[in-house]
């Protein structure tokens, strides 16, 4: 796997989302259930059961209450499924980080009779103050091509930073952070 492509995201973004998941699992525990489980919890099944679900997180850090918020949603659009994650810093932490905001959107293929998702388009936008860093990935498994466009903008000036493509090796699936989130929740990678 070529880890020098923009498809492999910065480790801080992965750690950020992993922290959200950990916080959500801890907060989502109800009495009488195991850590991370809730009354209607299913460890595996058809991923379409998440349709219409929105998970909301309030994140506190040390003595900073509600330092950030995040929502992740899974929904159906016409003939495909999508997920949207919006996370942003608030209050003093927001001021200190220039009110950093991450927006991730993924469009999925459903595989293996609903057991697994596969990303066919992934959009990543990071907003820090008045600057935006945006990457759009198109993953075409029919032509075995992964294409991406990366732009940066500050105020009203948008500049193309990078554009590229690479061949997808046969039998390889690219999973972005949202695809991986739902595949992990559905035990698609194993128990």
Distance between the termini: 24 Å
The stretches of 5 or more residues where confidence is low (pLDDT under 50) are 1-15, 20-32
Query: Helix-strand pattern, N to C?
Result: HEEEHEEEEEH
Q: Note the beta-strand portion.
A: over 45%
Q: Count of DSSP helices?
A: 3
Task: Sum up the overall morphology in one term.
Answer: flat
Tags for this model:
191 residues, alpha+beta, 8-stranded antiparallel β-sheet, 3 helices, 17% helix, 46% strand, flat, disordered N terminus
Give the SSE layout.
Blueprint: H1 11-27, E1 54-61, E2 64-77, E3 80-89, H2 91-96, E4 101-111, E5 116-128, E6 131-140, E7 145-154, E8 157-167, H3 177-185
Antiparallel strand pairs: 1-2, 2-3, 3-4, 4-5, 5-6, 6-7, 7-8
Description of the molecule:
This protein is α+β, with helices and mostly antiparallel strands. It is 17% helix and 46% strand. The chain is built from three helices and eight strands. It has an eight-stranded antiparallel β-sheet. Strand 5 and strand 6 form a beta hairpin. It is flat, with a radius of gyration of 18 Å. The two termini are 24 Å apart. The N terminus is likely disordered.
